[in-house]
Amino acid sequence: MSELSLFLGCVAPNRYPGIEAATKKVFSKLGIGLVDLEGASCCPAPGVFKSFDKLTWLTLASRNITLSESKKDDILTVCNGCFSTLKDVNDILKEDVNLKKDVNLKLAEVGREFKGTQDVRHVIEYLYQDVGTDKIRDAITKPLNLKVAVHYGCHLIQPLKESHVEIAENPTFFDELVEATGATSVDYEDKISCCGAGGGARTAILDSTLKMAEKKLQHMTEAGADCVVNACPFCHLQFDAGQAEINQKFGKNYHLPALHYMQLLGLAMGFSPEELGISLNAMDTTKFIEKVKMDTLKSKICITAN
Amino acid sequence: MAEQEQAYKIRRFLQLEKIGQNSEGQMNIPFIFYCTTCYKCQDNCPQGVKIVDAVLAIREAAVHHGTMLPSHKKVAQMLIASGHAVPVNEEAKKRRLQLGLSELPPTVASSKDQLAEVKLLVHLSGFDKLVAEKNEYNLPMVKSTAFKTCDQVLAEGKA
After folding, report:
1. Helix, strand, coil % (nearest 5) of chain A?
2. Dihedrals φ, ψ of B21, to 5°?
3. Which of A131, B4, B131, B153 could form a disulfide with B54, with the two C-beta atoms 3.0–4.6 Å apart?
4. Is B41 on the interface with A (CB under 8 A)?
5. What is the average pLDDT across A276-288?
6. Domain coordinates of chain A in residue numbers?
7. Nearest to A59 among B79, B99, B121 (CB)
8. Which of A2, A158, A6 is nearest to A87 (CA)?
């Protein structure tokens, strides 16, 4: 049986633990072994730390990778930013012998060594490529009657551009995974564009990044979406906490619940919105939860009637 | 970002660098820190210029010369103190317990030894001095790890 190491990052465990809980439940239901990568730190975030000091970025990221090198299987991340950092660093150090030496000199001080034996996987591309939409569909007990606005996020696609051109070019893999839950992925304007949060921009210039997020929320709402589904806790934060900020700062009234794909899949596998942490969003999700519960009830009645 | 911020002109940073002026000069701070690294400009560049890589190089040079946004400095100090750029807080602890998770995440947050490792590595690379509150410290660029300069990036794009 496979046993992946779950790399949590910062925002999922420390702001949206529902994403962590959902991931563990979903993998247990799929029968795929997933263990915590104990002692991991911030990846560190690609937009900020990589551009502050690249050697620090490489060193801390490689330490996180070494934590998994005693394990049988690869690292799994549920965050685009962590994916970008860990995959890039892993690929760079596997190729560049001199850089690997530099980094290992530092790691030796804490008794570690980067070997380059593992791969770094993002949960979305892992589920698509290694598990497959058929197996996902088989694991679903409560097909969802939802219109979903899929948000890929820049750092899900970017790291795949060299190694997985076939799925990164005109991507549909995330939409296919969403539709495997029974939901419909709706098309909307500027679908591939950025949520605005990355690169340290949210920290540097909040209002401008909120305007970027607002544009996306507007297009998603116009497309009739019931929720926005993301693959990254930081995009998730921008669409949830950021949405509350947009409403308050700009006098708007957006009400589009944000779900990480792990939470959407969890719903379709029969877990309750409460145990997946959907009710813990900054935005009120009561109406959305009522709709999901009502749909489940309706389908039960249909099954009984038939 | 260019749609939101008139002063954010990513090509101008590259042009300044190319004519030998420091694009991390006072005029362009804080704008060089506004890039979300979405790669849209790089993906659409007809010349294949690695624009985002160049912006990251400009940023790193600025930071190494002691110029950072205060808000970014705070995030960096958070990483040094806790091992997380976004550390756990009381609200998150409560929610974790409510969801049946451990109160503290099974990360550096749960292990003093592991956090000590992170702190030592940060110290060895000089990062703690680089992002210290009163920074009089200019961290030299390490050749083997430095991002390509804009000239190199531009030359590669044209090749």
Report:
1. 55, 10, 35
2. -95, 145
3. B153
4. no
5. 98
6. 3-123, 133-305
7. B121
8. A158
Report the SS3 class of residue A149: strand
Distance in angstroms (rounded) separating the CA atoms of residues A279 and A272: 10
**Residue B1 CB partners (closer than 8 Å, separation 6+):** A196, A201, A208, A212, B8, B34, B35, B36
A132 CB-near residues (< 8 Å, 6+ apart): none
| CA pair distance A278, A291, nearest whole angstrom | 13
Decide if A109 contacts B120 (C-beta within 8 A): yes
Is A156 or B52 the better-scoring residue by pLDDT?
A156
List C-alpha distances in Å: B138 to A59, B62, B63, B66, B131: 19, 10, 8, 6, 10
User: For residue A195, what are its two tokens?
Assistant: 């949520």
Per DSSP, the three-state class of A252 is: coil
Confirm or reject contact between B114 and chain A (CB < 8 A). yes
* Whether the domain at A3-123 and the domain at A133-305 fall into the same CATH topology: no
Bridge partners for A36 per DSSP: A6
Please state, in angstroms and rounded to a whole number, the distance separating the CA atoms of residues A291 and A244. 21
Strand pairing of A147-150 and A120-122? Answer: unpaired
A299 pLDDT tier (thresholds 50, 70, 90): confident
Q: Is B142 within 8 Å of A54 when comparing Cβ atoms?
A: yes
Q: What kind and span of H or E run contains A210?
A: helix A206-222
Q: Is A13 exposed, middle or buried (0-12, 13-18, 19+ CB in 10 A)?
A: buried
Q: For domain A133-305, give the CATH number.
A: 3.40.50.11810
Enumerate residues 6+ apart whose C-beta is below 8 A from A284: A255
B-interface mutation test, from A28, A38, A56, A206, most B Cβ less than 10 A away: A56
CATH number listed for the domain at residues A3-123? 1.20.1050.140
Other residues' Cβ atoms within 10 Å of the Cβ of residue B152:
15
Distance (Å, whole) CA A101 – CA A104: 5
| Distances A154 to A43, B43, B105, B152 between C-alpha atoms, Å | 17, 11, 26, 25
The whole-angstrom distance between residue A23's C-alpha and the CA centroid of its chain comes to 10
A159 vs A175: CA distance, rounded Å: 18
Q: Please check whether residue B155 touches A, CB under 8 A.
A: no
Among A242, A233, A176, A234, CA closest to A214: A242
Dump pLDDT digits (tens) for A1-48: 678 999 999 999 999 999 999 999 999 999 999 999 999 999 999 989
Of B4, B75, B100, the CB nearest to A48: B75
Q: What are phi and psi of B98, to 5 degrees?
A: -60, -35
